[in-house]
Each structure stands twice: as C-alpha cells, then as structure tokens.
Amino acid sequence: MYETKCDVAIIGGGPAGLSAAVAAKKEGAEKVLIIERDVKLGGILQQCIHPGFGLTYFNKELTGPEYAGAFKEEAKKLSVDALLDAMVLSVDGEEKTVTCVCSEYGVTKIHAGSIVLAMGCRERTRAQIQIPGTRPAGVYTAGAAQRLINRQNIVVGKDIVILGSGDIGMIMARRMTLEGCKVHAVVEIMDYLAGLTRNKVQCLDDFGIPLKLSHTVTRIKGNERVEGVYIAEVDENKKPIPETEEFIPCDTLLLSVGLIPENEITRGAEIEISPVTNGPTVNQYMETSKEGIFACGNVVHVNDLVDNVTVESEKAGKYAAKYAKGEMPSRNRTVPSVCGNNVRYICPQTINISGEDEKISLYFRVMAPDTGVFLTASSAGKEIYRKKELRVNPGEMCHVVINAADITGDDVTISVVK
Amino acid sequence: MKADVVIIGAGAVGCGIARELSRYKLDIVVVDKNEDIGGDASKSNSAIIHTGYDASPGTLESQLVVSANVMYDKITEDLDIPFKRCGAILPAITDEQFEKLQDIKHKAFLNGVYDVEYKTGPELLEMEPNLNPEVKGGLFIPRESIIDPFILVQALAENANDNGVRFLLNSKVTDIKTADGMVKEVVTEKETIQADIVINGAALYCDEIAAMVGKADYKVVARRGQFFILDKNTSCKVNGIVLPIPTKVTKGKLMCPTIHGNMLVGPTAEDLDDKTDKSVTPEGLKSIEDDVKRLIPGVNVRDGITQYAGLRPNRVPEGLHVDTYEDLKGYINLSGVRSTGLTLSVSMGIYIADLIRELGYPMVLKEDFKEKRKGITRVKELSEEERDALVKSDPAYGRVICRCETVTEGEILEAIRRPLGARSMDAVKRRVRAGMGRCQGGFCGPKVLEILAREAQVDETKINKNNDGSYMVVGKTR
Q: Which of A119, A299, A323, B392 has an alpha carbon 20 to 30 Å from A93's alpha carbon atom?
C-alpha cells in the first residue's frame, strides 16, 4: 500500500480546497496536497460557465472556470500537489491520516500535519421534499442537468418546469432557454425568492420566464418519461390549495430545492456537526471540534457566493499551515456565538479568545426577510457592533466584524433588530 | 424458436422456476415484457424472506413459504446473495394486541414454524431500544430475514442462464396458441416460441395471460404499497424487522433495516383499478409515518432518501394457486403470488418440477449442473489490502463513480458486461447500487449514462432509465 506524508492535506479541489491550498502555501506550509475525486481541479465551478463570480473578491466578473482557473494557476505556481481521480474513504482525526483510493496508486494513506475538509455539498433530491407521483425519467436535480449540459454537451429535455428558486435553478432556467428549450415556470413554495435577486433579474425576468412564488409541484405524471407536473398555490402553512391545482405538460422537472453539506467523512472522523447547517461547527480559524482538522466552503455551510467561500477557505488554509508548524494562537477560553432575533445560524459557532488583538468575521443568515434593520452584536449585555442594513433575506449571507477584545462576556449574541 | 418450457415473467418466481428447472435436461426460455429481469413487483417490496408463521395453515402458500425459508442459508451462499437472518419482532403495544399474541403463536405452530418465542416488554426494549416504551410484550420470530431482492432475482436468472436457460426481454406476450387440448406456441412482440410446457408467472398480468387460453376464472387487482427508504445516518434505527400486530384488513406497516444498512418503512395497502399507477401520495406517506410511529415513536421520515411504490398482484378471489388443466395439457397457471412471492421463489421451482414430472414429462437431471454463481465484486466489502491489489490489477476499480455508495467503474462495467447485463440506468442501479444512495444519482447519474452509452457504442439519447420511452436525455447542445 502506498503511503505518503504532507504538512497540510486538503480533501476536495473545488474553490474551497484550492483557496485553502494557496493560503496554506503562502503561510509557509512546505508540502500541501489536494485530494480530488474528479480528474481535474475546480470542483463544481467547472460546470458553472455563466459569469457572476469574483465580483467581490477580484472586483471583476468572471465565469466559474475562469474563477477556478485563477486559483489553479496560483496553486501550480506555488507547487501545490494534487492527487486526482482519488476518493477519500476515511479520515482518522487523531492520527491525522487520510485513506483514499485512486486508480493510479491504489489504496493510499496520507499522513498529514493538519487536514482541511473541503468536500462541498450535494443537492437535495425529490425524496427530501417528498414530491408525490410516479418516478419516470426526466426528474433531475438542477446541478446534474447543469453538469450534463455544460460538461458533457447533453440536453436533458425540451419542456422544462423548475421547482425551487435557488440560484442553480434560475441559472439553469436561462441556460436551458438559451439552448432552445421552453422553461414554462420556476415554482417556489416560499413567498420569497430562495436565491440572489440579481439572478432573478438576469435569468428569469430578462427571458420572460414566470416565477410562481407560494406555489409547489403537487404531483409528477408519467410512467416512462415525465409527461407533466401538477402545480398548486400553497396556503400559509405551505399546504397546497386543491382548487388552484393546474397541469403543466412538460418532459422535464428540474429541482433546485437546496443544498446539503457533504459530511460523510466528517461524521466518520467523529467531528461535531451542527444540526442547523449540517456542517461541522468551527471556530474563527475554521477549525472543527477536532484540533488540527479544519473545514471550509460549502461543507461547513452553504454559501451563496464563491467569493465568500474563498475568504473563509483562506482562513482555513492559513491556520492549517500554522497548526502543522505548531504556531496556532494560544487557546485561552472559548465562547459560543449565539443566534439572537431573526438569526438562523452563525459561522463560526465558537470563538477562541487568544488574547491577541484580532478582528473576527461572523457570517450569518436571517430566518425571514426584513427591511430597514440593524445588525447587532453584543457581549456581556453590552452592544459591541451595530450596522444599518436596508434589506436582509435568507438567501443572502450577512456579515459583521467584531474586535476580539470587545468580547468580555461568556458569549457573543448576533441579532437583527428594527 | 423452439423450447420445451416457456416461462412467462422474469420476476423472482419466474427466475426461481427457471433456475430449478435448469437442473434437468430441458430447453427453457423465459420471456418478459420489461427490459430487465425483476422489473416489476420483485423490485419494489419489503425485501423480507418470510418464515410463513402467519400464513393460512394448510394452504399451498404456507407449504411453499415455510419450506423456502430454510433453503436460504444454502442458496444465498451458493449464489452469492447478500442475506441476513436478523429476525422479526411483533410487539404488542395495547392490551388488545397483547391478547392476540397467543393466537398468532398458535397459527405459527399450525404452519410448522415452531421457533417463535414470547418476549417480555423489557426484553423487546433491549433488542430494540427505539421501540415504543409502552410495549407490553410480544413475539420474536428468529428466522424472518432480510435480503437484497434485486440480487436474488439476478442471481437466480444468471445461474439459470449459466445452466442454459435463454432469456427474451423486451418481449411482451401477445398470444398463446393451443390445439388439440395442448399448448403449442407463445407469441411475443419479437418471437414466436413453440413449446410443450408454458408456465404463466406474469404476476400482476397473469389474469391477462390466462385469458389468452380461456383460463381467467379470477381477476388480479393491483394492491399498491408505498415505502420510504431512510438514510443510513438516520438517528432512529432498528436492528431487526419490527412488525405490527395485524388487523383483519392488513398486515400493517413495518420498519426494518435493509441488507445495506438503510431503514425501510412501509407499506401501504391500497387496491387500485390501474395496474400501472406506481405513484406515491401525500396521504399514503402520511399514513406510513403515523402508523409506524406507534411502534417506533422516533422514526424520522424526513431522513428519507427515496419513496417508492410497488404493486402487489392481489388475486380475487384470494389465495395462491398453481393450476393445471385436464383440457389444456402443458399449461401451468400461477396466480395469487403476492408479498410472499420473493420468499417462495426458491421453493416454487421444486413444486413445479414435481408437477411436470407428474404430468409425465421426462425429467432427466443434467450431470453438469452448475450450482454456484459468483456475483459482481463488492469493492466496498474488501479489506484495504484486497482493494489495493484489485486496483493494481484493474485501475477501473479505483475510480469511484457513485460516491454515496462508493461504487467503482469496475463494478459498473461488470454489471454491463456480464450475461443478462445491465442496459439501463435502473438496471445498473439494481446490480451495483450506483444511484441508490442519498444523492439518488445526482452526482453519478451523468457518469453512469456516459459509461452505458460508451459500452453499448450508442448515443446517450438511446439510454433509458428502464423501459422503452424512459429516455434520459434528448440530444446534444447547439
């Protein structure tokens, strides 16, 4: 069996893994190894051929492959190693060993100084939302259809209905339209958009694709291939209203109904998982409940912008390198970040008070949309941060930055208040 | 085409009969309307090998199920089929249910199932910590078992095939020709087969086949069963099969592990007019959740990775029948094969073989019958060393295609290339589990599609999910 050593082992060569690898190198880690299951680096960005990436990180608009390309090039320049076509089977959190299998070397064991988990996420399927009806061909998750159209040049259907107004769904509505398909509707059960507003404008409005809020698919029809879907308006309890049911003939139903961090390896390594994000809980260094194992990107929590993933992953890479060199900040005391009014979750979930002067970024999502609000942070009953925000909604991540020195209490509470 | 025996239906029972009859010097053809073996009821059931403890004593069904159960240790070993004797419990939650236990045990005794044991509430809770704590006591049926139902059918069919049985798939039977009080020909959409013996094992459609020879003195109604499959990581699991105390109307809804570690919850029992309606319904799914919660209060159907429905062929009037006819020699009609069909697939063949012998047909054993079948490599079950060696001999076993179930390209290629190999997405899924995990083919689907097209040397548009018309994709980009 092949065995090798490295300072920082990174599981996943998507945007998170690539950013972490570059940052780890820059921090002085000598041997950084990315383990990637695809035959190429870049992750899901490879199939995201639309523009809209890099607006905040690079201050310019790039396509997915261009955004990934920038990091791939830098990783190459810094001599980051990559083991491609390799699937990680398990991680030993104590020994910091990664076991993987790849066609080139067989079963391979990697002994690492520290590990970064960057496996990304997967799409929710029809089963998770229990769509009734038959199980014909032609029901795809939006991401699977996107892979087929953008990487394999294959079109899945001609007459499309999309369930869920997530970003991938809206982007696929435009993509399928550009390919000559008819997108009959984007159907969203909530009374607000799940994805970014700019995607609604650029992908739906500009192409005259109807968005049906407060609607859902009540039944799939067809034995061999999808023949159509029934949709209906929902009441305030999200229950379909029978009188409003209508039939839309179509051959394809695309699902954009949310993403779930992919944490099988994390669970196997007995790392604590947050029931809210479905990702590992982390501190401000993106370190999980197991010391020396870091996590970043959509494996931690589902981000709406890859730019945020990069920022978060650079932190993970930097501290993974520090850990491998034995240079982690001292661990004096740990305080949790606590969800206050209209806050669904916060990342990081814990903050290490090292005693050093440090600015701490906290990312969070609201539970419900609101306008004219203040984002606040408080500790020991004292407000330590306040920012005015015109508009908040669950589809767009909020961000506050606090000074470590201001955290005098046993926790930090983030609230969205009027 | 000519044959001695034509078996209509390549489900568990049809394939089981084929395998058993292939011990003899007979020329056997199995025909099926579907593109793959095991394409109907055999693929959507509770995957349990029953003991027959609750059958109607003295019936043919009781005889076949009871005798089948004990055969599974050997046959699953011989044919390389994942199988586990996990046992079943019947917990009584109410006093009324508790009182029924004696009758159930007595019925088991009448069926010749002597090893059913009484258990106290605390004993049952020790066996199943997630059981309703109000449990008053119950029964334990040690030989109720779980199996991979897909591999059971594949194994029976492949071994039959290895012993000379031919399979004609995508071949719906359109007529059966008779003359002089004997069967003569089975006409399918593709081929006409002259035969001495015709066995109707068409399950849901056996009444339609029987009508072709004027023997449809019964009807088959589709009884739909909806199920949930839960994620392997679901927090509330059971160790064995947990059965409800049956009512007059139904056997009720159960929870059990699958052989691969998921949880199976269901089924409903709804009689339908339509023999094709495999829809899941909100009402059906809700009723499963409500009913099973009485047994396992913590069951979390939100952890479902799929929901599906199967159609059991419910005979009216009821009862398992194997009929032969004085005025139609060579025709054997099976009807009323329902949820116990999977179990009795291995005993039915023995019964049929004996029946054919009684009909006076020469039954000569082959000297070279191959008893064993080797399944597709299950890479996941190999040790690290074995796996390493395998990848070094063939790199395709190092390429993981389905990440949820860790299925490699090597396994998918085996599924496609072996006899009676997979031609569709579902056929691949049923052989190696690619797409059966929590992402339900979201990641591996596009890759499996590519591999199937590449192997068949066709365009991806020619690859189906299962039967004709279930095309996966429509064409290339502009």
A: B392
Residue A207 CB contacts under 8 Å (≥ 6 apart), including other chains: A173, A174, A177, A183
Tell me whether A154 touches chain B (CB under 8 Å): yes
CATH classification at residue B173: 3.50.50.60
**Strand residue runs (E) in A195-278:** 211-212, 215-221, 228-233, 246-249, 252-255, 259-261
Contact status of B443 with chain A (Cβ, < 8 Å)? yes
CB A319 within 8 A of CB A313: no
Answer whether residue B55 is part of any domain: no
**Could you give the number of structural domains in chain B?**
3
> What is the Cα–Cα distance from B319 to B342, expressed in whole angstroms?
16
Helix (H, G, I), strand (E, B) or coil at B13: helix
Predicted-complex ipTM score? 0.94
Amino acid at A101: V
Helix axes B341-358, B60-69, angle to 10 degrees: 110
Picking from B46, B43, B163, B47, the residue whose alpha carbon sits closest to that of residue B431 is B43
CB contact under 8 A, A87 and B400: yes
Domains of chain A from N-terminus onward: 1-122+259-328 (3.50.50.60), 125-257 (3.50.50.60), 329-418 (2.60.40)
Strands A106-117, A97-102: parallel, antiparallel or unpaired by DSSP?
A: antiparallel
Strands B2-8 and B28-31: parallel
Q: How far is CA A82 from CA A15, A32, A36, A159, B274, in A?
A: 14, 8, 7, 41, 55
Domain at B249, CATH number: 3.30.9.10
Establish if B473 belongs to a structural domain.
Answer: no
- Residue A227 at interface with chain B, using a CB cutoff of 8 Å: no
Nearest of A264, A285, A270, A334 to residue A120 by alpha carbon: A264
Active site residue B50: yes
Q: Could you tell me if A253 and A161 are in contact, meaning their C-beta atoms sit under 8 angstroms apart?
A: yes
CB–CB of B121/B135 below 8 Å? yes
Mean pLDDT, consecutive 10-residue stretches, chain B (478 aa), reads 97 98 98 95 92 96 98 98 98 96 97 98 98 98 98 98 98 98 96 97 97 96 96 95 87 95 96 93 96 97 94 94 96 94 97 95 96 97 95 96 95 97 98 95 95 97 97 95
